Structure formats: structure tokens, C-alpha cells
Amino acid sequence: MGRGGKLAGGLWRVGLYIRLSRDDGREESLSVQNQRKILLDYLEHEFQGQWELAGIYVDDGLTGTDDSRESFQRMIGDMKAGKLNCIVCKTLSRAFRNYADQGYFLEEVFPRYRTRFISLGSPRVDSFLDPEAVQMGLEIPINGILNDRYAAKTSADVRRTLDMKRRRGEFIGSFAPYGYDKDPADRNTLIPDPEAAAVVARVFEWYVQGVGKGTIASRLNGLGLPNPTAYKAGKGSRYRRPGPANDGLWTPATVARMLQNPVYAGTLVQGRQRVVSYKVHQTMAVPPEDWYVVEGTHVPLVPPALFQRAQELAQRETRRAPGQRTLHLFAGFLRCADCGKSMSRKTARGIVYYTCSTYRRKSKTACTKHTIREDRLRSQVAQALGVQPEALSRRLLFEQVREILVHEDGEVTVCPLPAEGASSV
């Protein structure tokens, strides 16, 4: 019997597992093609024809510190389905750098499904020819611990390097935001993409002119402009947003995300999320005070004053009480003349009032009530605007606020607004 070993009643149905880590770079000795050649040469020499190839499972550019890799999971599924009974990889670290998972698969899963596992590196592992080394030996567990610790150290080093880049205002994302490209001379610097940058500027200009996000999305779709995901795909990018398949159309939510993104004013905000640990690759939110915010890192696509106007208008457009589905007429528009805080809406005996939120929620001595009935306020505002009270609307108020904001410094040109039915505001 050759060293490959014979399986009673048939052939070894072999699955080759190959993983190319991002850390490998372009080293040919570690490439997918090279790993495949090494494994196939081993089978040809050692198994003496007593095998058939059931599949080649490749995870390209993924970490080995968890077992959620797509091809790895597919291989395990095929093993459980009886499609293969032997797994071969180049080294233990290609399959596992997580010590707990290494023990789980070698000592529990593979024996349960009577699957032979072979690793060609040091230490050499063959659970069929030397099962005691796998089940009771020390070398393999020790090697797993060393791989695990190496992965932990590498993860910590990478995190420190990325945090340093974030502090310096270097862009570290895999894909540039819509409207930008990565500078070919410095991949950590953003430069404008002229075609998409013009769309970004147009979106901001329309919005401060009073055009609603829904109307903006409809206009962009009407012009045949692909949304950010489709645009990047059209330029050859592998970028994909999670969720349902993207149809290439703009939506109000897409427009809203753009209007809220400070990158378009020349400010990088990074570090909003972190992975839980080098073993648990789920992300968790980071408190805003711990974000990395660096201004002036790249060329803005919109003037900072225009970006700020858009933020002010958005606050007035969308404010509502927590859990409140209805956006009331004056929501976001009313401020106390003394303390400058918002006016709080309440209802008593069927009558709606607005009261200073500082007085109502914080301190009875910090300000006074400044209570006013909503019906009386509506009449007074309508009279000031020269309209009937029943004609008063959030759109009309929004127009007035927009014109006041625009005229404060004269930097934004006021253009005619679309017809009443054309906006979602």
C-alpha cells in the first residue's frame, strides 16, 4: 500500500482547499495556481491513482481566522452530503488560524463524517495514516495556538496601522465614494471623478433650491444616470452594496445618504465601525466621539457653505418626535426667542400648544413657558405670509426658510422651484 493509503470499497473523493490571504500579496509561491499545483502533484505521487477530484474550493483574499468563508462552507456542506471524504490543503494555517475551530474540525467534525484531512506543511497532518497525532498529540495543537497568536498579533498591527492612517486623514476604504477616484499616485488620497462629481454638485444645488429628495431621484433616473452602485460597476469596480440586487435606479434614500456625507465638503469621517475581534468578524458601531474626523483632506465637490445649508434644511424637513409617525406643520421650525431651543408640541383638552422645551423638560427657572396655541400661531404666520390659514403648508414654510438661509451670505443662487406637485417636500 502506498503512503496515500487505500480506502476499503472505493476511491478517495478529494476536495482541495486553497486560500490566498490578502497578506500574501503577489508572491508566486503562495498563489492560488501554485497551491493547486502542489496539492495535485502530491495526490498524483502519493495516492497512486486511488483518488478522484471531487472539487477545488478557493477563498481568494480572505482571512483564515474564522470559518465563515464561502468556499470553506461549501466544502463542508459537500462533505456532509457525502460528495467528498478527503480534504487536502497546503498548511494548517491555510485552513485554520483560529485554534478553537482547528480543534473542533480535526477532533470532532472530520471524524464524525469519516473524512480524511491532510495538511502538507509542517507539521504534516494525515488523520487517516496517523490519527493518534491528530487526536492525542501535542504538536498539532501547539501549532494551532501559534497560528492563532500570530493572527492576533497581525490583526493588532494592522489595526494600529489603519488607525494611524485615519488620524492622518488618509482614505483607507476599499472603494472611493461616488464622485471620487483614488489617486493613482497615492491610493490613500481622493481625487474628483469629473463625471460623477458633476452629479453630486447638481444634487446639492437642487436640494437647497427646495427640490425634494424624491424629485431629485426621479430627475436623475429620467436623465438616465446610473446610481452610485451601478456607476461603479460600469467602471469595472467589484463594489456591491449588501441587500437585494441593485437595479441601478436612484432612490430618495440614496440621495439622502449623499446629502449627509461630509466627504463632499472635503472632510473624511472614518472609523464608524469596528470588527468585534480578530476571530469574530461581525462589525459593531463606534460612538461618534471616537470617530476619526479630519477636514481638508481632499478637494470638496460642494462648497462647505452649501453643504451646511443642506444640513440645516434637512433638519427642518425631517424632524419629528421619537415614535411619532406624523410630521406636523411646524415641526423643526419653531425656536424659543429667549433660549434658542426648540418649541415642544403638546395637546391638552383637544387644543394643541407649543411650549419652550427648556422650560418643559429641563428647568422651570432656566426659561419661561412662551406658550402659544397652534391655531393662533397658524393664523399669525399665514397673515405674515399673505395666505389663508388653510393654505399654509410645510412646503411653503420650507420655501421661506430656504430663502432666508440662502440670502444670509448670498453664496447660493435661488432658482425657481418646481411646481407644487413635483416635489416630495
Automatic annotation (TrEMBL):
Domain (Resolvase/invertase-type recombinase catalytic) ranges: 13-169
GO molecular function: DNA binding; DNA strand exchange activity
InterPro entries given in the database record: DNA_bind_recomb_sf, DNA_bind_recombinase_dom, Resolv_N, Resolvase-like_N_sf, SSR_resolvase, Zn_ribbon_recom_dom
Domain Recombinase as annotated: residue spans: 177-320
Superkingdom to which the source organism belongs: Bacteria
Pfam families referenced in this protein's UniProt entry, alphabetically: Recombinase (PF07508), Resolvase (PF00239), Zn_ribbon_recom (PF13408)
Protein name, as recorded: Recombinase
Organism of origin: Evtepia gabavorous
